[in-house]
Amino acid sequence: MSVLECKELCKRYGRTAALEGLSFTVEPGRIVGLLGPNGSGKTTLIKLANGLLTPDAGYISVCDMAPGRESRSLVSYLPERTAIPLWMSAGQLLDFYGDFYTDFRREAAEEMLGHLNIHPRQVIKQMSKGTREKVQLIMVMSRAAKLYLLDEPIGGVDPATRDYILSTIIGSYNPEAAVVISTHLIADVEKVLDEVIFINQGRIMLQSSVDGIREEKGMSVDALFREVFKC
Amino acid sequence: MRWEFSNDAPIYTQLIQQVKVGIVAGIFPPGERLPSVRELATEAGVNPNTMQRALAELERDGLVYSQRTAGRFVTEDEIMIQAAKRGLAQRHVKSFIEAMLRLGFRQEEIVALLKQEIEEGTRDVSTGM
């Protein structure tokens, strides 16, 4: 069973088409990069997958379910902007996630926070931007979900934080679950990915494995991306 | 262990090479258990499936073997490790020679230069310079 499946998926905002007939599947155990320039439809697709938007045409499913209340218990979502309540302490955030999500692995989250020397009494508001991003990712990856949707998890953070985030994603790998990472920072993530989907103006331009691209083209995914999307 | 990747080759083939170097250099000693796929993938910063693929390939070559529940181990066969060492050395030498030929050196000149460099190197070491 595919973790995520789209068939001829379309979404419009007024007259503007955001997605125009997307079809692809994501299998369990895969880490997939959703790569495209700004405005290509990455965030729209992620919002459709977790039921924050509804399709205008076509079909999208998570573990054979239309996105909705039931599928949301299987999806762990990292939004583009930090969305954790800033007034909470780290400890309160752990309680909050534990109350909200039955699949939240509190010990795993506590261990990861411990590695970062984050004390349970530390308040989110007083953390740096990079630390907030790390804390939010820890919360998202500590759920035993079937599908992790990470919207720009490494945008706007320093290279060391980027490395931390990527190694947390690798360390949380679960062969039963899939991870979809949207980003335009390809050089940083391509080693972490199984497959990439190039998306532009709401259409898929290419879907391939990372090593498939390197083998066939003799270049990195980053280099190919620059070639395909040359301005 | 330091992991480095170039942009022009598949990641799994580069992982095969680097784990081989680790085995030949004794970072992963003969007969010892290798770290788990997840640990190695995290350390190298690569996709766990890609690491798995590289290790499976090394297993087919016989440099590592798995024991069903205990994990993957480095071969104890010294001859096999020496052969891998030779293979790695040959790759370095080949690419060195290619680079020198591109610079316009003839074969005898390459040998002479190499010899001179090695002799100077040992002299520096013996005089403590």
List the helices and strands and how they pair.
The complex is a heterodimer of chains A (231) and B (129).
Chain A: E1 4-13, E2 16-26, E3 31-35, H1 42-49, E4 57-62, H2 69-72, E5 75-78, H3 90-100, H4 106-115, H5 129-141, E6 147-151, H6 159-171, E7 178-183, H7 186-189, E8 195-200, E9 203-209, H8 210-217, H9 221-228
Parallel strand pairs in A: 3-7, 3-8, 5-6, 6-7
Antiparallel strand pairs in A: 1-2, 1-4, 8-9
Helix pairs in contact in A: 5-6
Chain B: H1 11-24, H2 37-44, H3 48-61, E1 64-67, E2 71-74, H4 78-102, H5 107-126
Antiparallel strand pairs in B: 1-2
Helix pairs in contact in B: 1-3, 1-4, 2-3
List keywords for this structure.
heterodimer, A: 231 residues, alpha/beta, six-stranded mixed sheet, three-stranded antiparallel sheet, B: 129 residues, mainly alpha, Arc Repressor Mutant, subunit A, 2 domains, two-stranded antiparallel ribbon, 6% strand
From the 3D coordinates, which CATH architecture of the largest domain in chain B would you assign?
Answer: Orthogonal Bundle
Q: What proportion of the residues of chain A is helical, as a percent range?
A: 25-40%
For the record, the CATH class of the largest domain in chain B is: Mainly Alpha
Largest sheet: spatial strand order of chain A: 5-6-7-3-8-9
Through-space gap between termini of chain A: 39 Å
